[in-house]
Specification:
By secondary structure, this protein is α/β, with parallel strands linked by helices. It contains twelve helices and five strands.
């Protein structure tokens, strides 16, 4: 019988840090330290990449590059990228622990999936050094995974599939058809698609929605529905097999996928 044996989750915006705010703030402030402005929307557009690659992407924005040229009288170079990344890391490390709380119903859902014999892997745009803070902080609040893979030592991070493949090796999962990748960014969706596994997006709490839980609860129903639909469309356009509103829908979706695989 074919079935899902492994679920691989992202971290910020998927399992912890509702709305994915820790990296957004650090990106904005690190560019500000150079006299440059990047918006929350611009940082979110590249979220899911490794953090150094996101900084490179933000520097490439024409407005940002032009402002740098006007301010410093030259084009930016790799030294400037690395200086910005160093400041980003300083800011992020100072706040990571505060943003490591699990999103609502994540702990209960993952515990249920594990009780069904499903192993829990994870991938992230954070480095191993960053995850050395996030993993124990999340565990203190009840969230644990069976494996965490960063892009350190791999050919590349998202949207490439290597972190998923490393999870499969570490967790001895032999078939990509039995793996479900679950995440909140477009890079997460593409990572799953490129790995050839089931790729599932989540809307509430996601980087793509970009709202706090309080903002979600206070927003008029019609406006919230509109924004959630926009996220769903973007995820499906990126190749998602399915998109759910929240993690509570995941067990039923897995049952549906299992049934689908055994009909085909």
């Amino acid at each position: 019988m074919k079935k899902i044996e492994c679920v691989i989750l992202d971290w910020a915006g998927t399992a912890v840090d509702y709305g994915c705010f820790a990296p957004v703030s650090a990106f904005i402030e690190s560019f500000k330290s150079l006299g440059l402005e990047v918006t929350a929307a611009e940082t979110r557009a590249h979220m899911g990449l490794t953090k150094i690659e996101e900084i490179r992407a933000l520097f490439k924005i024409e407005r940002v590059a032009n402002t740098f040229r006007e301010r410093y009288g030259r084009d930016y170079n790799e030294n400037d990228i690395q200086a910005c990344y160093a400041e980003f890391q300083r800011l992020l490390f100072a706040s990571l622990r505060s943003y490591s709380g699990p999103i609502s119903r994540v702990v209960e859902t993952i515990d249920f999936l594990r009780s069904q014999g499903i192993v829990i892997g994870s991938t992230t745009g954070y480095t191993k050094e960053m995850m050395d803070i996030v993993i124990p902080a999340a565990a203190e609040r009840g969230y644990r995974v069976d494996n965490c893979v960063t892009s350190d030592g791999l050919p590349a991070g998202r949207p490439y599939p290597y972190m998923i493949y490393k999870n499969m090796c570490d967790l001895t999962v032999p078939s990509r058809f039995s793996v479900l990748k679950y995440g909140d960014t477009i890079s997460d969706i593409k990572e799953g698609v490129n790995a050839g596994v089931w790729s599932v997006g989540v809307v509430l709490g996601s980087n793509e929605l970009g709202l706090t839980e309080e903002e979600v609860n206070a927003m008029p129903a019609g406006e919230l529905k509109k924004r959630m639909l926009e996220v769903r469309y973007r995820m499906y356009a990126a190749g998602a097999h399915y998109v759910v509103d929240s993690i509570e829908e995941l067990p039923a979706l897995i049952e549906s996928i299992n049934a689908r695989m055994n009909r085909e």
